[in-house]
Amino acid sequence: MLEDPTARLMGLLPTEFPELQFVLLDGETVLGKGHAVAFGWDDELQMLPDTGWDWVLGHGVSGRLRSRPPTAVSALEIAVRPDRQGQGFSRLIIQAMQAAARRLGLAMVAPVRPSAKATEPRTPMTEYATRIRDDGLPADPWQRVHARLGGRILKVCPASMSIPGSLAEWRDWTGLPFDRSGEVEVPGALVPVQVSVEHDHAVYVEPNVWMHHPT
Known about the structure:
By secondary structure, the chain is of the alpha+beta class.
């Protein structure tokens, strides 16, 4: 996912938004981390752009560099080391983000990447993201973590991340042949990658789900 051209801006977050970067420690052992960004948005939250992750990272960084006052905080990444997942640590990171947004007096949103969607890459996100269990919580486990902390769906952002590249780059990134045009399923991707052998080009456009968190 870090092959997304916009992701290079992540390197600016520790200096531009130090108050919104988080590390979860057990003694000196790093258990997880979280990255967020503050941004300005004057419209209703339900009208947040369809280019979710890419837009909010770029908009937040450019706004800070131009000294524009922010109106909201957006989560960008929450990661827990693989051998400590499933122990509730991601909740702690989200709660830390909520507390930081509250201290700043800002709303909090997130372009959520539903974790189990990769098992159904051809299911439309609008269908997948709205699935509800009998207990009223989202069917997707990562959406469920957000929902248990008060997060609610605002809308699907269908072009949240865009990752273009040559076929050679995609072969290097994935280890797959990329030798035919059309849709290619990549393990871990939420939707198929669109491939053109004729033009030596492939692009992955990932949908996410904007969720709003109480602060």
